Automatic annotation (TrEMBL), chain A:
Protein's UniProt keywords contain Transport: yes
Biological source species: Herbiconiux daphne
Keyword Acetylation included in the entry's annotation: no
Region forming the signal peptide: none
Lineage top rank: taxon: Bacteria
Lineage: Bacteria, Bacillati, Actinomycetota, Actinomycetes, Micrococcales
Domain ABC transporter stretches: 17-238
Alphabetized Pfam families for the sequence: ABC_tran (PF00005)
Protein name: ABC transporter ATP-binding protein
Automatic annotation (TrEMBL), chain B:
Chief location bin: membrane
Pfam families for the chain: BPD_transp_1
Domain of life: Bacteria
The keyword Cell membrane is assigned to this record: yes
Transmembrane segments: 30-52, 88-107, 119-142, 149-168, 197-224, 245-268
Lineage: Bacteria, Bacillati, Actinomycetota, Actinomycetes, Micrococcales
InterPro entries for the chain: MetI-like, MetI-like_sf
Domain ABC transmembrane type-1 residue range list: 83-269
Name by which UniProt lists this protein: ABC transporter permease
């Protein structure tokens, strides 16, 4: 599936998402992104860090097709796209099971089949036993797990995350990071993950992209070589600290 | 390590936390309103006996005379029959107001141009003094039940329209986008997202409209004074005959009808959406 014109031919089968010189200027004149080129391949987990308001969410919205870019080419080579918002965006009148079934339901999957898919996804995020719970009875972390499970039912090849754990406490966030890494290694999706946290970016990803302040441009890029599944202890190593330092430095440079 | 300071998490108040005030002590629950009621009766007696002399006491007959009038078999029968007719008109009028109001709001929520074309008329409906139209409605539709129901619908309609529209439009943007990402059609978005999300607002509107429907059912009848007498005719008759104890009894029954219908719709709302929506927050 290709969003926006002109459509570029797919060159590499491993490529799932490709931005070529993408820019976004809103009707009110705000330029949120300019000259962004980025490719996300299968097996990659790319995180994007950047100052608030630099266009990170806009980038994801363009990738998902919610907002077409005003310039450049955006190519998405799959229809199975998962999208996790900063808010869990659960429907408060539906219980966990029914919330997780929602996307399959909207895609016309028969009841039996989607119930089974949802059950698997709920197991995968560690929420079994909570199927009948309403969102208002769940903690922030559990809501986010439900939201993750809901996207997992699409069996996404490309998974977009917009600061999903930004509102959670540190401990919950770290636990969910580990579970996300587990999902990533098991489910083999390509990830594009937005975060404010440099250490979260380094811990999760195969590559960290640093963006400048608005209009957002890519100012630096750091491959992360730690093997998967990641050992939580790497957070305390010197290499980890050094990489975080480099990313932070690039962020500051890009900001000024 | 210096990073840009993390932005404060976007808090979105969907519902304020419920202030749980369930006291188990019945004295604490019922004490204050009962005390107010007793105080009210005392003031009532004071007005009847201390302020008004005997000749003018009919202006505010003391409570026990009202009670006596109410339990006079003839008056009781009259009031109860009138009550049943007024209740009938109010419920039919309310049902119609709900259907038209929700339909109107759904139509407006589907396109901005529909909203722009139709919303002014909802406001006009709210602003024109319906009382001025009542005689006209009588001319056009006769002076019996249909006309009473029409008056009732006109008075009860606006809160249904405005609340439903507000509910449909207050759907969270993220939730909308969730549906949009799956290319959900309009009908799906309406039935699976907008309408359920609007239910709390719809029920809040229903409660207001329920109270207004009682007013509407009484007003039409009060002016027409034709056909089977409802509470409106009865109030009108008692007034013209200066039967003040009976008049007070009828007024109290009318007030109670309003309160009961209001309470019933509050209860239905709680039953339907209270499971996931916290009404006590507003
Ligand atoms: N629909 C819109 N119309 C106008 N400006 C917008 C719109 N959406 C976002 N913006 C602006 O674009 C910039 C980037 O927004 P966003 O992508 O949400 O930033 P980030 O996610 O990096 O914090 C911000 O300055 C924001 O105010
Ligand atoms: Mg954002």
């Amino acid at each position: 599936m290709s969003i926006a014109t002109p459509v570029a031919p797919t060159t590499k089968t491993d490529q799932l998402l490709h931005f070529d010189d993408v820019a976004m200027t809103f009707p009110n004149g705000t330029t949120a992104l300019s000259g962004v080129s980025l490719t996300v391949n299968r097996g990659e987990f790319v995180t994007v860090v950047g100052p608030s308001g630099c266009g990170k969410s806009t980038l994801l919205r363009i990738a998902s097709g919610l907002t077409p870019a005003t310039e450049g080419v955006t190519q998405v080579d799959t229809t199975r796209i998962g999208y996790v918002f900063q808010d869990a965006t659960l429907l408060p009148w539906r219980d966990v099971q029914s919330n997780v079934e929602l996307l399959a339901e909207l895609n016309g999957i028969p009841k039996k089949q989607r119930a089974a898919t949802a059950k698997d996804a709920i197991d995968l995020v560690g929420l079994s036993g909570f199927e009948k719970h309403l969102p208002k009875t769940l903690s922030g972390g559990m809501k986010m797990r439900t939201s993750l499970a809901r996207s997992l039912t699409l069996d996404p090849e490309l998974f977009l995350f917009d600061e999903p754990f930004g509102a959670l406490d540190e401990i919950t966030r770290e636990r969910l990071n580990d579970e996300l890494i587990k999902l990533f290694t098991e489910q083999q999706f390509a990830g594009l993950f937005i975060t404010h946290s440099v250490s979260e970016a380094v811990y999760l990803s195969t590559r960290v992209i640093v963006m400048s302040g608005r209009p957002g441009k890519i100012v630096d890029e750091f491959p992360v070589e730690f093997p998967f599944p990641r050992d939580p202890e790497i957070r305390f190593t010197a290499e980890f600290a050094e990489l975080c330092g480099k990313v932070s430095h690039a962020l500051r440079e890009g900001h000024s | 390590m210096t990073t840009t300071p993390p932005a404060p998490p976007k808090t979105r108040t969907i519902m304020r936390p419920a202030t749980v005030r369930k006291s188990t002590n019945p004295a604490a629950t019922w004490g204050p309103p009962v005390a107010v009621f007793v105080g009210f009766l005392l003031v009532w007696y004071a007005v009847s006996y201390l302020i008004l002399d005997e000749k003018r006491r009919f202006l505010v007959p003391p409570p026990h005379e009202v009670l006596a009038a109410f339990f006079d078999p003839k008056v009781f029968g009259e009031i109860m029959l009138a009550l049943s007719r007024t209740t009938f008109v109010a419920l039919i009028g309310l049902a119609i107001a709900i259907v038209i109001g929700v339909g109107w709001a759904v139509a407006m929520s589907q396109a901005k141009w529909v909203e722009r074309s139709l919303y002014p008329y909802a406001v006009v409906l709210q602003c024109i003094p319906i009382l001025a139209l009542v005689p006209l409605i009588g001319f056009w539709f006769g002076f019996d039940y249909p006309a009473r129901i029409i008056v009732c619908v006109m008075i009860a309609l606006f809160p249904m329209v405005s609340n439903t529209l507000f509910g449909l439009q207050s759907v969270d943007r993220g939730q909308r986008e969730l549906f949009q990402l799956q290319r959900a059609g309009r009908w799906t978005v309406l039935t699976k997202l907008e309408f359920p999300a609007a239910l709390p607002a719809i029920f809040a509107g229903m409660r207001i409209s329920a109270g207004l429907a009682v007013v509407g059912a009484i007003v039409g009848d009060f002016f027409f004074r034709r056909g089977d007498p409802g509470l409106g005719s009865l109030l009108s008759t008692y007034t013209s005959r200066l039967q003040s104890a009976e008049l007070f009894a009828a007024i109290i029954v009318a007030a109670l009808l309003g309160v009961v219908i209001f309470a019933i719709f509050g209860w239905i709302g709680k039953r339907v959406v209270g499971r996931w929506y916290d009404f006590s927050a507003n």
